[in-house]
Design brief:
Elements (H helix, E strand, L loop, with lengths): L2 H4 L7 E4 L5 E4 L7 H8 L12 H7 L1 H12 L3 H5 L3 H44 L7
Antiparallel strand pairs: 1-2
Helix pairs in contact: 2-4, 3-4
Amino acid sequence: MSAGDLKGFAPVPTHITLGDGTLLEIAPVRLGDLPRLLACARPLQDDLTAQPDWLALLLKHSDAVLELLSICSRRPRAWVDGLALDDAVLLCTALFEVNADFFVARVAPAVHGAAQRLGPMLHQISTAGTAPLRD
C-alpha cells in the first residue's frame, strides 16, 4: 500500500445528539479495538445484515450488543447500560453506518489489494522450500 493509497483513508467522524442533549462523536473503530470487537461480534455475525433489526439483535445477543456499543462508542459499559432504548437504537444505527461504510468501502478493498500483491510472493516463498530450523 503506497502513501497514495492512503489518501482519504481516514474518515471524518459524524456526530449524534442523544435525547438528553449529549453530543457524541462517532468514528470508525481503531486497530486496538479489533480483538475485543471481533470476539464480541462473532455470535452476531449470522444475524448482521445491511439493515439490521436492532431489537431482534438485542433480544438474541443482548450482552454482545451492549459490549459492542461500549467498544465502538468508546464509552464505559455502565454508560451504555444506562441509555434510553431510543438513544441506544440511535447509537447502534450511527455506529453501524460509520463502521460498515469504513470497512466495506475502505478497509476491505485495501486488505484485498494487499493480499493480491502479497499472494504471489508468499506462494513463491512457500514453494521454494526453506532450510530446516536449527535448535
